[in-house]
Amino acid sequence: MMQSDTSRLDAQMAFLMEADRLKSVIRATKLADGSRKETTAEHSWQVALFALTLAEHAPEDIDTAKVVTMLILHDLVEIDAGDAPVFGEHDAAAIEAQEQAAADRIFGLLPEDQAMRFRAIWDEFEANKTPEARFAKSLDRFVPPNLNLANGGGSWVDYNVSFETFETRVGAKIRNGAPALWDWVRPRAAAFFDRLGMR
Amino acid sequence: MMQSDTSRLDAQMAFLMEADRLKSVIRATKLADGSRKETTAEHSWQVALFALTLAEHAPEDIDTAKVVTMLILHDLVEIDAGDAPVFGEHDAAAIEAQEQAAADRIFGLLPEDQAMRFRAIWDEFEANKTPEARFAKSLDRFVPPNLNLANGGGSWVDYNVSFETFETRVGAKIRNGAPALWDWVRPRAAAFFDRLGMR
Lengths: 199, 199
Prior knowledge:
The structure is a homodimer. The first copy, chain A, is mostly helical. Helix content of chain A is 67%, strand content 4%. Chain A has a single domain, classed as Hypothetical protein af1432 (Orthogonal Bundle), CATH 1.10.3210. Chains A and B meet through α1, α2, α3, α7 and α10 of A and α1, α2, α3, α7 and α10 of B.
């Protein structure tokens, strides 16, 4: 049975206020000006803006609105699970279990029909199988190298990353869903690593 | 004539990297936990999440994707014009002129067809005439009171706001595009102002 409008709104507001905590999750990537590390809330806005702006470069027909929705929701699990920097060492299975539990809890704050709908979008993103998920995942990987290029190396320097590691852990994922964007950033990153003597 | 794909992408990337500066614009509203003031980038994500979650409470049929697009773009002008806190004293005409100039410059970084498309969405938001713009504007006003309620008063206390001022400057604008959300937050705000003796 559908909840009354008031208790639906109560549940939605509980979810939204819990989501505010994404402003306190700090990522490994610094702002373009290098002044500090970004928050996951800021990143979520930025990657959604990248999707709106770069949708035409997707290699397949995509529903841009769905990509944007995915990206607004994609990191909410970090409220419980934290951010796992791409160049850090992780137990992938442990992180996945934490993120699944976080999705259960956080989307579970919503009215049931909406919880299922948002969860399905997040599951689709994680599974990385549809054109929308592939493009969204690629954008998620494409933003940080551009910030690193702007701020003098950022997480590449902090984690002492080689160009080969960058190509393997990041490049392959950008290329998978957005080859045109990989073609654009790869030579810029290669030249940067050369200049820093990190290649 | 359409630009080549590479110069289109160059222009789009120039726009996107300029947009990164929205992470350095500080708003008057504090996080729900009161720990610091939020950035406009964080706010832009949050209000887009509110739109995705609360779209069913719009009083008219709306295109949710358009509302979300509006909200992702709506504050980019603050990169040049800064944030004008709702309870501050402002020269409205001067701010509008600054924001128009900012929109010219910032959207002008994009390829021309896309600059016109994004600018039209921003103009529609500012004009506040379509159902999507009205709902988006109301959400933009609805988020901060909920953060203030969570963090102990926030900008209401900082600006020594009366309930009457809140109703006039904020309430009327929430009610205009989202009466159900005003009905939800009004009694909570009224009780809060009563407790603080600010009513």
